[in-house]
Amino acid sequence: MDPRGFPISLPDFQRVFPNDAACAAYLEKLRWPDGFACPKCGKTGEPYRFPKRTSAVLRCRGCQTNTSLTAGTVMQASHMPLSLWFWGAYLVTTQTPGQSALQFQRQLGIGRYETAFQTLHKLRAGMVRPDRDAIGGHYPVEVDETLVGGRTRGEGRGVHHKATVVGAVEVRPRRDNKDRTAGGNQKQLAGKQCKRAVYAGRLRLRLVSGRGDEVLCAFVTENVTKGSVVRTDGWHGYDDLAKLGYDHDAAVLDGAPEKIEAHLPTIRRVFSNLKTWLSGTHHGVSQQHLQAYLNEYVFRFNRRFYPMTAFHSVLGLVVRAVSPTYEELYSGKWIHPAT
Ligand SMILES: [Zn+2]
């Protein structure tokens, strides 16, 4: 478990959710933090439970209506055991690189490849909706483009099937950075230089038709808060950013590669990791599906410090104000409503 109360490994996670009953109990507590209330007649109090039913269904003792715990979630009407859904959601939201259907099938011991594929597909659907709020504001934003995928195979020089991806990432200072500098221990600070003073904040990625100024400036205006510091290389496609209301910090045109690298280290690192993920996990992705993969990457990246939020989101779980934390579940402090 990490300090945020989220299991840090799959075995850990499986101890928290060892079986379908534990998952069902979690769903119930999430939906009715203060105890069951019938959605139809409103009657509260302990519902009737079906001990032998695999599906998680509760029956109101007043009006006899059955309520499914998975209604309105991605698990609705599924024949897959709840525990497999939970473990699958854990894997897709926390593991870097993300899962291919085959890895997923093997790791969870799912019998049929098609089942693994469908499940993964449904969990991913929750990750491919783009985050829409603008990034930047207090934080500077690095913007750059890169070419992704599409190896040339003997089609002659200059022919490629690579796709252009433009990205924007916030550069945030580490919280302990100021303290270290204020402490005045410069020697210690120098010794820690391998540990970066900044980290990547929120990310946006878009598949674009080229490096034209309209395309690039549209990406920035649609994703970055006006007035933010925007760092780019010297490419003229970004020339209008100051006019568009940004504090444009461009590297010198035709500057030395290492200087540009030093100007845009964060987005370059993001691109490098993105390419590793795309080629390693999915063995290259067709342009047709690339934007969906970019969205998935962004989803996981932006929630890497909030795995529980990501976990709830892919399962389609609505989280009320009060719900059991994993810590409560794990420590046994949380008491199952049925006991
Ligand atoms: Zn009822």
What topology does this entry show?
Blueprint: H1 10-16, H2 20-31, E1 48-49, E2 57-59, E3 66-68, H3 82-94, H4 101-108, H5 113-125, E4 141-148, E5 163-173, H6 175-182, H7 186-191, E6 198-208, H8 213-223, E7 229-232, E8 247-250, H9 257-263, H10 265-282, H11 287-302, H12 307-315, H13 326-331
Parallel strand pairs: 4-7, 7-8
Antiparallel strand pairs: 1-2, 2-3, 4-5, 5-6
Helix pairs in contact: 2-3, 3-5, 3-12, 4-5
The chain binds zinc ion.
Provide a brief overview of the structure.
The protein is an alpha/beta fold and 339 residues long. It is 40% helix and 14% strand.
What report would you give on this structure?
The protein is elongated and about 75 Å long. The chain has two domains: 97 residues, no CATH class; 156 residues, Nucleotidyltransferase, domain 5 (2-Layer Sandwich), CATH 3.30.420. The chain is 40% helix and 14% strand. The two termini are 26 Å apart. A hairpin with a 6-residue loop joins strand 2 and strand 3. The longest helix has 18 residues. The relative contact order is 0.16. It contains 13 helices and eight strands. The C terminus is likely disordered. The strands form two sheets. The protein has a five-stranded mixed beta sheet, sandwiched between helices. It has a three-stranded antiparallel beta sheet with strand order 1-2-3, with no helix packed on it. It is α/β, with parallel strands linked by helices and 339 residues long. The site of zinc ion has 8 residues, from loops.
